[in-house]
Structures are given as C-alpha cells and as structure tokens.
Amino acid sequence: MLKLKSLIINLLIPLSVGSLAGFLTMDSMKVYKNLNQPSFAPPSLLFPIVWTALYILMGISFYMVYESNLALKSKALKVYALQLMLNFIWPLIFFNAQLYLFSFIWLIFIWCLVLWMIILFYKIKPLSGYLQIPYLLWLTFAAYLNIGVYFLNK
Questions:
Q1: pLDDT tens digit sequence for 28-39
Q2: Which of 30, 92, 95, 113 is most exposed by smallest CB count within 10 Å?
Q3: Can you give the pTM of this predicted structure?
C-alpha cells in the first residue's frame, strides 16, 4: 500500500539536498563554463535536468527501502544517508573550491558507496536497487568529466 506522506518526504529529502547544493554553487558556474571541457561534455542546461530525475529515482528507491521491515534496512539507510551527504559536498569541492583532482577522488568514493547502496537496496527490494543504476551510470560519466577537467585545466 502506497503511503503518500512517506513517499513525498522521501522524495523531498534528495531533491532538497540537490537544490541546496545547486544554490551554493550557483556563482561558480561562470568559472566552470570557462574551463576547457572534455569531449562529450554536455551543455550546462542538461545537468539540473538529469540531477532532478536522479534525485526523484533516489527518493522513490529510498521510499521502498524505508517502508520495508527487513533487518538490513538500517544499514541500507545509513549508506544512503552517507552517499547523499558526500554527494552534497562534491559540487562544493569541484565548483566552489575548484579542487578538481580531490573532487575526482571524492567522486570515486561516492561511486563505491552508491554501488554498495545498490547491492543493499536490491537485497531488500530488487526494484529499489535497479532504480539506482542510472545514478551509478551518471556518476561514472561525471567521473570522466571531472578527471577530464582536471587534466585539461592544470
């Protein structure tokens, strides 16, 4: 049975985290646009669209796990919270601090946490794990862009 209030809250958490990160890095976008970009770098307009979709999938997936009664739920929710916190910090490191190599290493750590989260979510409810695969793929692409910016602008 769908619990609408719980679903809305679970959607608002990642969307709020992403919105706050976007707000805090807004002024740094001018710097980013002037950097040498790796090939296949998408237009800046695409980033908020993709991240919004990923945060929605994240919220739906989180809702499925949150509403489960399995013992693994506690560990899965901790990994989810940790990756979301590190995800929030990454744009501050990349855009605001312009620490491109460090942000790449940070991103690899997030990637590993998300893979762990997918495995845990899958064990609780397979669909919740599958819903995180686009996030992992996007992080892989973001890592390519991140390391490309590092090498093209050092």
A1: 888 888 999 999
A2: 30
A3: 0.94
